[in-house]
């Protein structure tokens, strides 16, 4: 009897040890993904800042004093870079998300101010009033939207009629659904899961932001998926909990 009890205790300790090790490896993997994502996401705003400042310098050199627009755009990109850095750092360091009731349409519009700065793309938004209040971590969901919009813009490169459409709808009594549609080249047929880390293709517009986006959405209790026809555009969908619903357990660490 004593031998059996000792065996059970040893087995339980072994399971606990394996579980701890698994959690440790998972967190290290997540931190590595965050580091890669940080470099990926900051590259675009930093490049934009350099371009705007270079343009301002050229205008000054040519004797054109009104350079406020270029400097304003540089400031927008600087704020965007700082926001990305802050949120990704918090994503790694702080396990728990701070959720609150948020206006979904306002959240999307604010994200677009960050996501499309300097891009000349026609974007139309259609918001459903019945699902305009959601329970989310505002900054992290904005990061999801920025990621998806960046991918849509990249997919539109060279397309004759570049357009992005953003829609919200009531997916069911509990969840709102956000859809981002582009008229770009579509997800390549050989990419089965663009949300998997390191499945990106250079120049294809699918960066490491997609795995992070899936983590954020799923941590909110939602899901994210896509529909695409190669050469005919893509639609990325994700769901978020409506406000005044039982709050899901949201852990991002």
TL;DR of this structure?
With 253 residues, this protein is α+β, with helices and mostly antiparallel strands. Helix content is 50%, strand content 17%.
Write up this protein:
The chain is α+β, with helices and mostly antiparallel strands and 253 residues long. The chain has 2 domains: 2-92, Helix Hairpins (Orthogonal Bundle); 96-241, Heat Shock Protein 90 (2-Layer Sandwich), CATH 3.30.565. 50% of the residues lie in helices and 17% in strands. The chain has helices spanning 2-61, 68-93, 104-115, 138-155, 209-219, and strands spanning 100-103, 122-126, 133-136, 163-170, 175-182, 224-228, 234-241. It has a 5-stranded mixed sheet. It is globular, with a radius of gyration of 22 Å. The two termini are 41 Å apart.
How do the strands and helices of this protein lay out in sequence?
Elements lengths: L1 H60 L6 H26 L6 E4 H12 L6 E5 L6 E4 L1 H18 L7 E8 L4 E8 L26 H11 L4 E5 L5 E8 L12
Parallel strand pairs: 2-4
Antiparallel strand pairs: 1-3, 4-5, 5-7, 6-7
